[in-house]
Amino acid sequence: MTLYTTPDQRWQAVESRDATATGHFVYAVRTTGVYCHPGCKSRLAKRTNVDFYDTPAAAEAAGYRACKRCIGKASTARHRQLVTRACRLIETSDPAPSLDQLSAQLAVSPFHLHRLFKAETGVTPKAYATAFRARRLRAHLEDGQRSVTDAIYDAGYNSNSRFYESADQRLGMRPRQYRAGGAGATLHFALGQCSLGAILVAQSDKGICAILLGDDPEALLHALQDQFPKAHLIGGDSAYERLVAEVIGFVEAPALGLALPLDVQGTAFQERVWQALREVPAGSRVSYTDIAERIGAPKAVRAVAMACAANPIAVAIPCHRVVRRDGDISGYRWGVERKEQLLKRETALS
């Protein structure tokens, strides 16, 4: 009986496409980033480009992805079922289970569960639990049937103090303000014109919360009102007009940078995408796949594209630097023509 314990034995099994070796090891091809079962019918790789691993988990930990021909479909379905079960456990447990508790209930290792969960959802189990609690709190605050204290405990927070430590990040404002639909929050804004058309800049007490581009200034104001329906909006005074001039200067020459704080809240996944976008230098272009890989969620390409589309701060969070893998310019919330202008401008200045 062949044990397939040495590289030579394993390579011989791969060369002969020995299906009986399946389950003993997998082989990975460096040039494609894919791992396969020994009996895979895909084109045979060069021996110098092949690595062997005892298990699929070991190959994936090394950065390889499953072959769609011999592994992918069945494996992907199982992975999604496992992650779905994990999500339901997180949502129905009080308090949320730790990674060790979650993996024990699902009969998988913590490492394996953490990797699969992040690959499928784009966030870790802990981040998912935090975001779910925040969503549940928002719903409890909005229904108006509970006190703020009751809503905090019902959402799964163990204490008031623990929640208030991160209230601004999770809600974007104090919980009583949120329950009142943003009433009491004050935003200063101003409208202007730049080479890309109309521009609206809005600022909270923490920083810039919106940079909107378009053709119609009135439409931009309506968009701001829709985004912050019950906040107190104040048209900019002369001091604020100077800040808007600084933002317009940045839009005209993004490579110069913007030395102003941003106040932006989204889901845990969106915030990771937006932070990765801010790390892309002016004059560079990346693909949605590149961003997905940078945040450690290589399978979440579509979710990355949706996070780019939800970006409320044009240019300062540079989603215009994301293009398709073939280099073609894809959609842009503020219009493809504006995206093309920004990219050309940055290329000229870089």
Can you tag this structure with a few keywords?
single chain; 350 residues; alpha/beta; 13% strand; elongated
Task: Describe the structure in your own words.
The protein is an alpha/beta fold and 350 residues long. 48% of the residues lie in helices and 13% in strands. The protein has 16 helices and ten strands. The chain has a four-stranded mixed beta sheet with strand order 3-1-2-4. A hairpin with a 4-residue loop joins strand 6 (197-203) and strand 7 (208-214). Helix 13 (268-278) packs across helix 15 (301-309). The chain starts with 6 loop residues before the first helix and ends with a helix. Mean pLDDT is 77; it is low at 140-182.
Q: What order do the helices and strands come in, and which of them pair?
A:
Blueprint: H1 7-15, E1 26-29, E2 34-36, E3 50-53, H2 56-61, E4 65-66, H3 68-92, H4 99-106, H5 110-121, H6 125-143, H7 148-154, H8 160-164, H9 167-171, H10 175-179, E5 186-194, E6 197-203, E7 208-214, H11 217-227, E8 232-235, H12 238-252, H13 268-278, E9 286-287, H14 288-294, H15 301-309, E10 322-323, H16 336-349
Parallel strand pairs: 2-4, 5-8, 9-10
Antiparallel strand pairs: 1-2, 1-3, 5-6, 6-7
Helix pairs in contact: 3-5, 3-6, 6-7, 13-15, 14-15
**Strands across the major sheet, in which order?**
3-1-2-4
Helical content class:
40-55%
Query: Would you report the number of β strands?
Result: 10
Shape: elongated
Can you describe this structure in just a few lines?
By secondary structure, the protein is of the alpha/beta class. 48% of the residues lie in helices and 13% in strands. Strands 3-1-2-4 form a four-stranded mixed sheet. Strands 7-6-5-8 form a four-stranded mixed sheet, sandwiched between helices. Strands 9-10 form a two-stranded parallel sheet.
